[in-house]
């Protein structure tokens, strides 16, 4: 498999004059590192697609959601009373006390939207409009603003053994915390990146039944996750995985390509002749074929997986990720 975790093609990250409306960057964005104003400006896109409702009083009400579990949070246990649901018996307390006890639950007032950010080095690369890392930050920002529009709490985390997750909060305050974290995480590869699998394990501990989970990942990172990991997440949550891709990866030119490290070390330059049939076949198997197989494998495990190119509109995935739609 051909990978270049610390390299990029020689030349610009995006063509001059790319239009923002077609996925291009604005004049004050370089496409290499995300900026907070850039992510804040995406609020209008997410709100235009939001499902915020207003009741007769004019106050905002909770957006409807297809919860995959009870949507309830454990409150306490008390002595069992006739008529209590036997499914909620607290067996541990019953065994310790010798008397039957039942669990009490309280309804979660707000759904949780959790953004999991893959920070693999392969994401910090791009040949059209912006780096894949910048597109990941923008897609995460769209998800955060969508959560605000839907009345959700919003949180975020990445694969790290030391960096804490962004705590869940509602409204613009919660969204801005997530946006600030995305800017920091996707400015450059974190030195303490522990991988996507670690991030998903942290997510499993934070999620409650009925939550929404958005995973921003390089296709190779998602493909490396053990198959047994996903069913535990999809059983009670809506899971969407965005696979960040670049046009060069999916459809390379029939030509000689030169790659160089970000530091510009000429001795580490790599030349790939994609006009050669064997080299081109290996490239397509590694990238386009890998994305297709990963999407199919995730779909078989109940995960809604989508490929998002770095030159596509950053909100293009929203409608396609709604439950029941392709």
From TrEMBL:
Query: Residue limits of the DUF58 domain?
Result: 76-270
Q: Spell out the Low complexity composition-biased ranges.
A: 1-19
InterPro entries of this UniProt entry?
DUF58 (IPR002881)
Chain segments carrying region Disordered: 1-32
- According to UniProt, the name of this protein is ATPase
């Amino acid at each position: 498999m051909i990978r270049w975790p610390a390299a990029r093609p020689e030349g610009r990250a995006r063509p001059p004059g790319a239009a923002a409306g077609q996925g291009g960057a604005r004049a004050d964005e370089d496409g290499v590192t995300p900026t907070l104003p850039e992510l804040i400006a995406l609020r209008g896109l997410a709100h235009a697609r939001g499902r915020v409702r207003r009741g007769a009083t004019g106050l905002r009400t909770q957006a409807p959601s297809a919860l995959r579990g009870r949507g309830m949070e454990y409150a306490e246990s008390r002595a069992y009373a006739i008529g209590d649901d036997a499914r909620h018996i607290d067996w541990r307390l019953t065994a310790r006390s010798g008397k039957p006890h039942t669990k009490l639950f309280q309804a979660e007032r707000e759904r949780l939207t959790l953004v999991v950010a893959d920070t693999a080095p392969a994401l910090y690369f791009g040949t059209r409009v912006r780096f894949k890392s910048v597109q990941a930050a923008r897609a995460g920002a769209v998800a955060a603003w969508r959560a605000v529009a839907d009345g959700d709490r919003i949180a975020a985390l990445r694969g790290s053994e030391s960096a804490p997750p962004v705590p869940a909060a509602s409204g613009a305050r919660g969204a801005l915390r997530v946006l600030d974290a995305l800017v920091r995480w996707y400015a450059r590869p974190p030195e303490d990146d522990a991988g996507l699998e670690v991030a998903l394990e942290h997510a499993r501990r934070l999620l409650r039944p009925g939550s929404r989970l958005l995973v921003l990942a390089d296709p190779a990172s998602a493909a490396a996750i053990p198959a047994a990991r996903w069913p535990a997440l999809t059983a009670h949550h809506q899971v969407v995985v965005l696979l960040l891709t670049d046009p060069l990866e999916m459809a390379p030119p029939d030509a000689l390509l030169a790659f160089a490290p970000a530091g510009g070390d000429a001795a580490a330059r790599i030349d790939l002749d994609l006009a050669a049939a064997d080299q081109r076949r290996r490239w397509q198997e590694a990238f386009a074929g890998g994305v297709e197989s990963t999407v199919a494998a995730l779909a078989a495990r109940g995960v809604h997986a989508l490929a998002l190119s770095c030159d596509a509109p950053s909100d293009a995935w929203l409608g396609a990720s709604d439950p029941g739609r392709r």
